[in-house]
Amino acid sequence: MTTAPGPAPLVVGVVGPGRAGTGLALAWARAGHDVRLHGRRAKSVPAPLTLTVGASDDPPPWLAAANIIILAVPDDAIARLATALARRPAIKANQVVLHLSGLLGHTALAALSPTGAALGSLHPLQTLVEPERAPEHLRGAWAAVEGMPQAVAAAERLARDIGLRPFGVRAEDKARYHAGAVFASNYFVVVEAIAQDLLCSIGLSEADAWTALAPLVAGTLDNLRRQDPRRALTGPVARGDAETVTRHLAVLAGEDRELYRRLGSVALELARQRGLDAAAAARVTRALATDPPPGRPPER
Questions:
Q1: Half-sphere exposure (Cβ direction) of 11: Cα atoms closer than 13 Å
Q2: Beta strands of 61-102 (E only): which ranges?
Q3: CA distance 287 to 249
Q4: Each residue's pLDDT tens digit, 60-103
Q5: pLDDT per residue over 107-139, tens digit each?
Q6: Which of 7, 3, 61, 58 is nearest to 32 (CA)?
Q7: How many angstroms from the chain centroid is the CA of residue 268?
Q8: Are 92 and 69 in contact (CB under 8 A)?
Q9: Do domains 11-172 and 184-289 have the same CATH topology?
Q10: Helix (H) or strand (E) holding 119
């Protein structure tokens, strides 16, 4: 019995050798695709990638050969790059052009509509900091895809080829989707930075503060891997411990205090959904809304 061959490898061209562009290019190269990478300035890229270099308004030398072109540039540069490519006979009707923005829809590529190319977007729901580690970090993550049908099909294939799980999102929903991603990743880091600062305020060095917090963060993430946020929630609000909330607010100042209050209100709603006693919830509500009494000044 013979096994039917899989789809033929694609020529995938990536414009923008930043962390996301290089990381995805490396993952697609390891998946067997013929990957071309292009940027404005020479820089080292991980093998087996090679980098072509040219001015921002000049199309990459490999453009005509690419089945799929990925614009891996910042959001505010996508439309500008699409316009530059549209000014030249660079993109053809048999090609697919995708951008990587989590916020913008395929209409950011509208300048390329007269070419007849299929336009869309592909956004991995994963943080990519070290391009060399991107192939392993991408496996198992989800990816939002959007755009014209042919572009969506191409984006779904590219996603699956590197272990991503693609899902469709409407262009008008991308801002809400991307805000969720920012809360899950970027603002999570911000909250950890505040926690680190608070431990520094009691005398720990930055390094020791983060070393002390890291196991707690890892344990929280492990809980979140096994159950949803509502069930993973712990702490004073989840227990209905209003006195602890009051004492926390008394030692916090300014934006930290207000952020504690806002996050506490969300935590309280999660606790209510999980069955927190109504009387305990009312006590926590009052604690979150009450200014701490005058006395010892906040430590930060």
A1: 9
A2: 68-71, 96-99
A3: 9
A4: 999 999 999 999 999 999 999 999 999 888 899 999 999 999 99
A5: 999 999 999 999 999 999 999 889 999 999 999
A6: 7
A7: 26
A8: no
A9: no
A10: strand 118-124
Arch. (CATH architecture) of 184-289? Orthogonal Bundle (1.10)
Query: Per the structure block, which two tokens stand in for 201?
Result: 């305020």
CB 191 within 8 A of CB 168: no
Of the candidates 165, 159, 182, 156, the one whose C-alpha atom is nearest the C-alpha of residue 75 is 182
pTM of the model as a whole: 0.86
CATH number of 11-172: 3.40.50.720
All structural domains of the chain with their residue ranges? 11-172, 184-289
Give kind and range of the element (H or E) at residue 145. strand 142-147
Q: What is the pLDDT of residues 225-255, one digit of tens each?
A: 999 999 999 999 999 999 999 999 999 999 9
What confidence category does residue 291 fall into, taking pLDDT thresholds of 50, 70 and 90? confident
Look at residues 150, 164, 166, 172 and name the one whose alpha carbon lies nearest to residue 103: 172
Decide if 259 contacts 198 (C-beta within 8 A).
no
The first and second tokens of residue 289, run together, are 């809304």
Judge whether residue 288 has pLDDT over 70: yes
User: Counting runs of H as helices and runs of E as strands, what totals does the chain give?
Assistant: 12, 8
